[in-house]
Amino acid sequence: APDIPVIDQAYSKLSNSITVEWRAVPGATNYMLTAQDGDSFIETIVKNSPGTVTGLKPATLYRITVRSINSGGKSQPSPFRKVKTALAAPILSVRSLSCDSIAVSWKAVHMAAGFSVSLMRSDGLGRMLKQNTTNTSLIFTNLDPGALYTIKAYAWNANGMPGDDFTYNQRTSPNAPVDVKVAFNSGALRAVVSWMPTEGALTYSVTVSSGLLKLRCNTSSASCMMPSLQCGSEYYVSVTAYNDAGSSEPTDAVRLKTIPCAPVNISIEEDEPGHLLVSWSSVSLGHYYVVFVKSDDGLEVHCNTSYTQCHFQSDCGFTYFISVFAYNKAGQSPLGDVFNYTTAPCCPRDFRAVFMSSDTVRVTWAPVRGADLYETRAAGGSGVVLCRDTATACTLSALQCSTRYNITVYSFSEARGSNTSCAPQYVATAPCSPEIKNISKESLSVISVQWQPNNEEATYVVTARGKAGLWHCTSTRNSCTLLDLPCGSAFSVSAIARSAAGQSFPSYSIPLETAPCCPNDLTVTQVTQSVTNISWSVGRGAQTYITTLESPKGQAKCHTLQTYCLLGCITCGTNYTVSLRAISETGLTSSCTYQGYSSSACCPSGVKLYRLSNNGIRVFWRASDETINYKADLHGSKGNFNCTPSLGLSHCDITKIPCGDVYTVVVAPVTDKGPKLTLFSSFCPKKIYS
User: Fold this and answer.
1) pLDDT of 614-663, one tens digit each?
2) Domain 178-257 homologous superfamily, CATH
3) CATH of 264-343, one of 2.40.50.320, 2.60.40.10, 3.30.450.20, 3.30.450.50
4) Are the beta carbons of 154 and 115 closer than 8 angstroms?
5) Fewer CB atoms near the end CB (10 Å): N or C, the chain?
6) pTM above the 0.85 mark?
């Protein structure tokens, strides 16, 4: 292990550390510094001298030793030195009492005998102030307003040794701004307050007060706008500067008088025709008044007075727009209410009445000065019809038909009422609408229409309107006849009345439907001996069809939505009457008759086959009708053969038939029009012959 080191000196410059100096020991690579306070101690490893032990308590006596260290181990501790740590720094509490003073205070420091506090501007200007005291507070005065100061303080012990120092920056509060000016904008009722900036001020607050009302504006610049000031008011304006240390004293108040408010309680009277008297109440801060009177033709006059009334000349039929302003040195009052006064209007000119329909008349006239509303009155019949409008036209509707009316137009003014000396004009309304009482069908295409006549000297026109076209009839009485209406068509039937006064409204329409048309083409086709197919073309206006085949032996009937139908239970060899009924959606029916139809002749019964020889066959049957001839037909793969007997016989022979084949034998009737083997043979039963 290395030799024991020897401490040259040990001292404390900071309250939490002690610095030790010693002579180097040959062969030592490190040194261990130990600071012991009673039972507790703190060790620190350092490379060489000097070394510092940290983490100590302020104003505390420690025993300091040093041990040298190398790879062989540690030396014994050196002889100890007793060293006391420096005093702790006082913790300052600083505030600016005013714009030229700063107060400093702190808590007592352990083992401190006194304190030293120094103050100097942070920008280095001016001189440094320093005070020593045994108290825990002091005040620096006669400082610069709004300046930033650096304050340093430390404590010393009974030996005069200084402890740790504490540094704090504090700004003094600003001085009050100077050269405050107020610029008032009378039109916007706002003021711009400006001042000279003061040193150290960060923000400014402008206070505008009037009685209990206070308005404030905060800004960092040297001006501020105060909006929404009230008219007719006197304000006091002051400015206060602020920084992080506090505020300055407010400036001396600057007095501001705003413009007067608009005059109120304005009254307008026409004390005599052609003369207007305008009066109002006086307003605060108003020195004089100006009244502007502008007529609706653009002419404007004014009156300047220090009193509260003015006289003006007026003309009838004019509207005057009147406004009153108050003035003082600050300017003109805001625009108050604009009043209008209208003199009595004149009667409308160029009166015209034109009928737009049988119960509506449009009345027009030339506009008159001063009228803002017109009333048109139509008296006649059982009452009065009124129309009010601001336009120079009015439409009188719901007039009684076929009536004479007395029409008068009155001009109105809300302020002055109406002019009732206007002359009337007489007009007559168009005839009344007829009312259709009955529509009857005299035949398929002839319709009789009857109505209730309710006009004098009127001509009535009846119209049937539909997709098929228009049909008309005319009469001066109470009925007329529509001719040649097409079948299967729908019509809307209405009537109008005409006279010298005009044409009535159409009557309520009555629906009319003609019976559906019979199909033009009808075809009967026999499907089997007892079933027949009937088809036909479309009948206009028909929705369903009923087809009937009728004979003395019975009837076959079919009801369908289609244009074809299958009829069963048909008797062979019978003449039928063919009829068809076309039915519309509403149940109207047309009965249609067509050319008769004869069903096919009846097939024979009891057909039997007898072999005559190896190449012959005899065919027997029972005839259904002795007046009908029959024909036997033999079909096979080796040929087709047939035979026809004489009239009245019920058998025939077929010879020379190739052997070794299977044949189909059919016996079918033959009509006077010639054989219909393809048709009738398919209806008759077949026999197999081998």
Assistant:
1) 788 999 998 877 778 889 999 999 899 999 988 778 899 888 888 888 99
2) Immunoglobulins (2.60.40.10)
3) 2.60.40.10
4) yes
5) C
6) no
